[in-house]
Amino acid sequence: MLRSKLVKVLATASLVGTLFTGAVSPSADAALADGESKFLGNVIGASGIPSHFATYWNQVTPENATKWGSVESSRDNYNWSGADQAYNYANTQGFPFRFHTLVWGSQEPGWVSGLSAAEQRAEVEEWIEDAGQRFGGSDYIDVVNEPLHAPPSYKNAIGGDGATGWDWVIWSFEQARQAFPNSELHINDYGIIGDPNATDQYVQIINLLKDRGLIDGIGIQAHHFNMDNVTISTMNQVLSKLTATGLPIYVTELDMTGDDNTQLQRYQQKFPVLWEHPNVAGVTLWGYIVGQTWRDGTGLITSSGQERPALQWLKQYFENSGGPVVPSTPTGLSANAGDGQVSLNWNASSGSVDQYTVKRSVSNGGPYANIGTTSSTSYTDNSVSNGTTYYYVVSASNSTGSSNNSSQVSATPTSGGGGPTGDLVLQYRAADTNISDNQIKPHFNIKNEGNSAVDLSSLKIRYYFTKDSSQNMNAWIDWAQVGGSNIQTTFSSASGTNTDTYVELSFSAGAGSIQSNGQSGDIQLRMSKTDWSNFNESNDYSFDSTKTSYTDWDRVTLYQNGTLVWGTAP
After folding, report:
1. Greatest Cα-to-Cα distance within the chain, rounded to the nearest angstrom
2. 513: closest CA among 470, 450, 564, 469?
3. Are strands 140-145 and 184-189 parallel, antiparallel or unpaired?
């Protein structure tokens, strides 16, 4: 039998004497999103409640104080002080409160992994029940955090994979529904906003919960490692997939990095995509004071209160009621000439964009004629003649109106342009050096050492390995600088030294091109068998555990327009 439970030591918070504020009273400040149909929130961390919190934000999530490892780092000794502080502040201000989180493999108590399965299950039940008794008035509960990436050590004790593949998640939501009958139950994970493939797997879990009446909303983290480089088209694709579930979407952990100008541009381009989506019910930023955020470069205001340009823009955005405005003028237009074609690429405009219009002239400075429209930030003009110089501009438009034309660029297509250069190099690194686990994680980078730009759509990468079984394979692009949605993966049988299978990566036109002396940037591939059984990578042709940083590697191959241009096939 399990031992009797000890009397809990409950440390109750005092709101007096925090780092930034004393006793909290309702604020007269108007948060940025006051009067909007959705909230714009932020976290309260270990430094206490900033005096200007309510000047900007109208929803509260504790950064760490409601995570099990923070509350019960010592078994049966609960410290609710930080959680109480955030919860009481939210209630005093009338702000929605998100309890983050009940079940998560990271920041779980260190002592729980050493218990028997029966004790683990009992402790999780007790943790959820106690949290419900104290914070039953929470508006939202992150029941399971990061199920795709960080399952808890006690996963098998609470159901394991089971018949559904996600029984432990279902069990967690069943417990939470009992403990928090008046709260909305949410799931939460990262890597979703930039990866439609991961979104599909996420939706599988969501639908299992929805079929059982256990879930009320979808949480998506939107951290800088996804948001800084994700394309707007990918964001919209992911949001559409999630909307199809019929559940509201909550952006739970938003941040973007960069110097003042870079961060500003990222917020201008991507924040409206999230905020203006009709199925996004709220957005929460993950910290905002420089020096107090979990990652450098994500802060929006200095410790002395100076607002960075991205925060200044957010204020202006909400002063305009967050409604659609005319898109900004596209920037960064580039033109790369090939044989009978010109490839154009540009930066996404800020605000809501319905389409971009590409315009061309054979005279410097125009007049320009419209030659096509696109919803992406790239376009290939195939109606050109070699030897002729063409001049291009691009504008952005939505229902409100059209932007000004971009700066002009020019290009002269020539015979033989864009063909194999002989100067392409494929680099490889092993992101997972464990030779006997259930996933293979090769990362790639393509370098263009030639004098001409190369369209990624003309290239294919092949990585060779042994499946060690007859199971089918799954693949995901966890992240890619050119956008995970612009990369397709296929598996084929192979024969040769230490290989029976290869995975081929191909690129859509949306991936753009690699400029002369440029590179593709990270392409992070992850593979598993459908039954999640282990591999033996020790005899895989392309695998090398010593290559943990990018290295030129001829055991992965690169094809351009069907011709081998790098590496040696087995």
Report:
1. 87
2. 450
3. parallel
Among 145, 60, 149, 52, CA closest to 103:
145
Q: Are 489 and 505 in contact, with CB atoms under 8 Å apart? A: yes
CB atoms within 10 A of CB 39: 21
Tokens 């104290």 identify what position?
134
Interhelix angle 117-135/167-179, nearest 10 degrees: 40
- How does pLDDT run across 11-65, given as a tens digit for each residue? 333 333 333 333 333 444 579 999 888 999 999 999 999 999 999 999 999 999 9
The predicted-structure confidence for 191-232, as pLDDT tens digits, reads as follows 999 999 999 999 999 999 999 999 999 999 999 999 998 988
How far, in Å, CA of 316 to CA of 312, rounded?
A: 7
**Residues forming the active site:** 146, 253
What homologous superfamily is domain 424-566 in, according to CATH? Endoglucanase-like (2.60.40.710)
And the tokens for 434? 């464990």
pTM tops 0.85, yes or no: no
What are the C-alpha distances in Å from 159 to residues 130, 131, 174?
Answer: 21, 21, 12
Judge contact between 249 and 199, C-beta under 8 A. Answer: no
Who's near 308: CB < 8 A, 6+ residues apart?
260, 263, 264, 290, 299, 300, 301, 302
- Considering the segment(s) 334-411 as one domain, its CATH architecture is Sandwich (2.60)
Q: Do domains 24-319 and 424-566 have the same CATH topology?
A: no
- Burial category of 432 from C-beta neighbours within 10 Å (exposed 0-12, middle 13-18, buried 19 and up): middle
Exposure of 253 by Cβ count < 10 A (0-12 exposed, 13-18 middle, 19+ buried)? buried
Q: Into which CATH architecture does domain 24-319 fall?
A: Alpha-Beta Barrel (3.20)
> Residue ranges of the domains in the chain?
24-319, 334-411, 424-566
